[in-house]
Amino acid sequence: MTPRKAPRPLDGRLYTDPAVFSEEIERIFSRMWVCGGRLEELDEPGSFVTRELGGESMIAVRTAAAGNVAGSNGNGAAADAGHGLAAFFNVCRHRGARVVDHCAGRTKVFQCPYHAWTYGLDGRLVGAPHMGRDFDAAGAGLVPVRIAAMNGFFFLSLEADGPPLSEVAADLPDLSRFTLDRLVRGDRREYEAQANWKILCENYNECYHCAVVHPELNRVSDYRNGGNLEYGRYYVGGPMTLNDGCNTMTATGRSDRPDLPAIEVADRTSVQYYHVYPNLLISLHRDYVVTHTLWPIEAGRTRIVCEWLFDPDTAVAPGFDPSDAVDFWHLVNSQDWDVCARTQLGVASRGYSPTAYEESEACLQVFGGWYLDQMGL
Ligand code: FES
Ligand SMILES: [Fe+2]
Description:
The protein is α+β, with helices and mostly antiparallel strands. The protein has helices spanning 13-16, 18-29, 165-171, 197-204, 210-213, 215-218, 312-316, 323-347, 362-374, and strands at residues 34-38, 47-53, 56-62, 85-89, 104-106, 109-111, 118-120, 125-127, 144-150, 153-157, 184-193, 230-231, 235-241, 270-276, 280-284, 289-298, 301-310. It is 22% helix and 26% strand.
């Protein structure tokens, strides 16, 4: 497949216009599978998280221990039976109040704080004070959102009739050697960048800026060390080779952490970077994995959740200390968000007239082509 390629950097209005942003929520984020985070956050029955996406709020919950079959609510099944998961719009069926405020927690029911309508973990309405016998409680469950699991992540889709997540899984490169299913979180940071989500994706997808913006990173992985461009219907990315003597991304370029158990020889001297459309950035090192999930708030503002994942045996070993990886990527993140905010300011100007990509920005051409296709442009 030869992908469509954007001929030049995208026009400024595509990063700044609220109408374009609304269209993106409609055409991209509401139609595609969006990465919600790690299944580890939904580890026991009743564990839940909320996620915000362009004005929508969703609840994802574990309804039953993994492997048990979960029930369905009055609106049709939202549960992914294999994993005992369900997800719903965070919207009360009475008069629309937001049901849950917390980002994460554990509960037996979801009770709306307005008039105390109460919903079970499966979304069914189980309590509605003083509603008469004629009221059809069975038809008043929380409205389902699709949820499914892949590689230790859960994904959400607002598109009731969209393709299964297995279609995305089948398109992605084989990352099984990184044993993503079993990795556990060593740390997590949240950020808010004053930049459009596409500026963050584009920045992630090129290292043309690395020598200038990330001198520390460039000492570990030279900006000219990019490998082959890889892409599919649902992703773009590729490897970068580490500098001589380096074996991972830390300030020193080295770590004594053991390799992830199934990696190959070539992984010991490189890092794989993939953007899984639309909101997951995943960076795979020989000894740990970093993920960024992007949550567009408005055209010029994006929430970012960054997580550091490790082999569970490594994470429980005495003396385990993820701070070399965390500190390094936190520095890189901060440098990136700064330059992305700077770009957001510039593309908002009537003086911005984009010219051309540099050769090493091939990923951006592919991403830009994918984006223009999705938007019908
Ligand atoms: S809006 Fe939720 S109970 Fe009334
Ligand atoms: Fe960067």
